[in-house]
Amino acid sequence: MQAYSSTLELDRAVMKQNDTFPPMVVLLEDSNGPIDLTGAQSVTLVLKGNQTSTLVTGPCTTENMHAGAAQYAWGASDTDTPDTYQVEVEILWGTGSRQTVPNAYASNPVLAIVQQLNPGADQ
Questions:
Q1: Is 123 a domain residue?
Q2: Total structural domains in the chain?
Q3: Looking at residue 105, what is its pLDDT?
Q4: Mean pLDDT, rounded, of the chain
Q5: 3-class secondary structure per residue, 89-123
Q6: Rounded to whole angstroms, how far apart are CA atoms 29 and 31?
Q7: For the chain, which end, N or C, has fewer CB atoms within 10 Å of the first or last residue's CB respectively?
Q8: How far is CA 36 from the centre of its chain?
Q9: pLDDT at residue 119 greater than cutoff 80
Q10: CATH at residue 49
Q11: Cβ contact 74:113 at 8 Å
Q12: Alpha-carbon Rg of the chain, whole angstroms?
């Protein structure tokens, strides 16, 4: 799985605390290449903090079903806790089967949300 957008690129992305742009775009792949999402009922982004118990989950929109591209638009509180997060995506297929990408912990991409220099400025 690769995560990219105008500033979130490849396997290690960095965002500032409380930022909600740019969206995260993920390319879902397995050993055969891109995962065709045509039969997917839902695609969900999951982030798990390494230092905190923070868990962020939310629905993705499919950008290019045949290429396995999905996008996650950040919610207001998604990036409010600085931490290093493991990233995975859960696909629920129309058959009821579930697939998690990537399927090995060691290969999870990482998203670092770093503290703002002046976190009170947003309020």
A1: no
A2: 1
A3: 58
A4: 85
A5: EEEEECCCCEEEECCCHHHCCEEEEECCCCHHHHC
A6: 7
A7: C
A8: 18
A9: no
A10: 2.60.40.1930
A11: no
A12: 14
